[in-house]
Amino acid sequence: MSDVGAAERSRWLRNPSLRIGIIASLLFLLLGFVSIVWTPYPIENINVGAAMQGFSGAHWLGTDNLGRDLLSLVMKGTLTSFIVAAIAVAIGGLVGVPLGLAAAAWGGPAEWTILRLNDFLFAFPALIIAMLITALAGPGAINAMIAVGIFNVPVFARVARGGALSLKTLDYIAAARLAGMGDLEIARRHLLPNIASLIIVQATIQLALGILAEASLSYVGLGTQPPATSLGLMLKDAQTYALLKPSLALIPGITIVLIVGALNLAGDGLRDLLDPRLRRIGLARGAA
Amino acid sequence: MIWFVGKKLLGAIVTLLVAAAIVFVLLDLLPGDAARFILGINATPDSIATLQHQLGLDLPAWSRFLHWLGGMVTGDFGTSYTQKVPVGALIAGRLSVTIPLMLLAMILSTAIGLPIGILAARRRGSLADAGLMVLAQLGVAVPNFWFGMLLVLLFAVTLHWLPPGGFVPWLDNPIGALSSLILPSIALALPQAAILARVMRTALVDVQSSDYIRAAQAKGLTMSEAVRRHGVRNALLPVLTILGLQFAYLVSGTAIVENVFYLPGLGRLIFDAINARDLILVRSTIMILVFIVIGTMFLTDLCYAWVDPRLREGALR
């Protein structure tokens, strides 16, 4: 996005939902990263005497059924959820984008094969992949990363192929071909940089979906395992005790909603900013 | 049209076969000897050999695969190690919870999502549009199982309007069975309705600003007539895609939400089977899920061709 001009930059500032989305996402990311070096209490500290406390000066968000500090758990849990979702995005992007580019650059049987592979992967929701891995290798956070990552592959492949196909007919690609560049070099030097913005938008949205998926998988016991914690695992624990203390279910759930909402706002805002077609519609709407 | 249907059907069957092969390799070949696994480390070689023979594990892998496939086609899914009952009967019982739940959730989310999307598109730029879209943005971010927990806390625990969980069989008490599916289906439907409303709104807004609607207006139709007669079919395309995907992904959603409400559905059957390491049960139930997903995508393709004649003719993807 280095070619964003001054006019673009002022648009950026005038788009409040994009700004709110990005700032809120970064705040939660910061909250997670702080937990690496510091949390109010160690989450391994089980202190049944202090269990199920309400909001107080000592425990801002109260304590859970084992007397663990809820704020500390939320911080650690946010970090885990972000890491799982980010690694899943990385897997999806690193496998999917080259596949999509190759499909667009080569065409023919290679493209056909990649598209069929894509359709095939679409038939496996992350939950089914996670079930397979867990039945095979036992539960763990790594399963969730792999399962959501595999789920992300066709998404990124489709975005990369779509973007690359729309560029492929442009004159400068023909010029590069005349200059003697091969398919792969064109894909790498000309197509990839130009679809980077599309991929960033998709990565933001997949990050949000990944956090939801991590929560679901951990909730049913296929993801993060104790003594580690994640927002989904906190909800699994809350299932038993929410009747006594609803805030055990409310706090991690609201955290998930806020993170996912912030990421979606950022993704939608980036898309509006980067997609000229939508921008035109947006301006027309502003004029009407 | 027949050519198109045949091609899509063939594609779906090939996908199912490849999926079955992968599931078989992962859950039958890789874990090593199932008989040793079931009997534990203290088993005698004799008892292992007997069980291997009972399970057909002394046959070569390809013959076991074909036997499994053939069994599934004829409705014989084998016998569960842990529950000692035919897997087919177990699955059939669980589907009587899962399928109605999926259908109910789908109907609810369509009934809520589409009107909201249409309303927002018709009043584009108004306060109502902005408010509805903020709600939709929020709905997309809500995990369905957490929403289910909140529904239980409010409507079952606090207000006592509906049961908090569990299920009575349809034949014993149809009203009771339906009422225990109400909260789970709402939990599944609302986040989906949020997505649907957004897609419907975008599709209609796109259609309203398209050239052919302007042409129809120039011809003398009013905006709503033009949209009804020319726009709806076009706006339906993206909505259909999303509906198909949503039904396919309801498979996961349902399996997870069943845990919130302690519903004896297919999802809980699989989780129990995974915990008990009952791989025969796991592989067949997973294939049922894959079958539902692939079947849904096949039907979506057919609906697509029905709405958009270009796809029928071109036979393109």
Describe the fold and architecture.
The complex is a heterodimer of chains A (288) and B (317). Chain A contains eleven helices and no strands. Chain A is mostly helical and 288 residues long. Chain A starts with 5 loop residues before the first helix and ends with a helix. Chain B is globular and about 85 Å long. Chain B folds into two domains: 2-74, no CATH class; 87-308, MetI-like (MetI-like fold), CATH 1.10.3720.10. Chain B is built from 13 helices and no strands. In chain B, helix 10 runs antiparallel to helix 12 (279-307). The two termini of chain B are 14 Å apart. The chains are: A mainly alpha (288), B mainly alpha (317). At the A-B interface, helix 4, helix 5, helix 8, helix 9 and helix 10 of A face helix 1, helix 6, helix 7, helix 10 and helix 11 of B.
Mean pLDDT of chain B: 84
Which regions of chain A contain 5 or more consecutive residues with pLDDT less than 50?
278-288
Give the termini separation of chain B.
Answer: 14 Å
Number of helices of chain A: 11
CATH classification class of the largest domain in chain B: Mainly Alpha
What class do helices, strands and sheet pairing of chain A give? mainly alpha
Order of helices and strands of chain B: HHHHHHHHHHHHH
What about the largest sheet of chain A? none
Mean pLDDT across residues of chain A? 83
Strand content of chain B: under 5%
How does the overall form of chain B come out from the CA principal axes? Answer: globular
CATH architecture of the largest domain in chain B: Orthogonal Bundle
Q: Gyration radius of chain B, to the nearest Å?
A: 24 Å
Might you state the CATH topology name of the largest domain in chain B?
Answer: MetI-like fold
Largest sheet report of chain B:
none
CATH evolutionary superfamily of the largest domain in chain B: MetI-like
State the helix count of chain B. 13
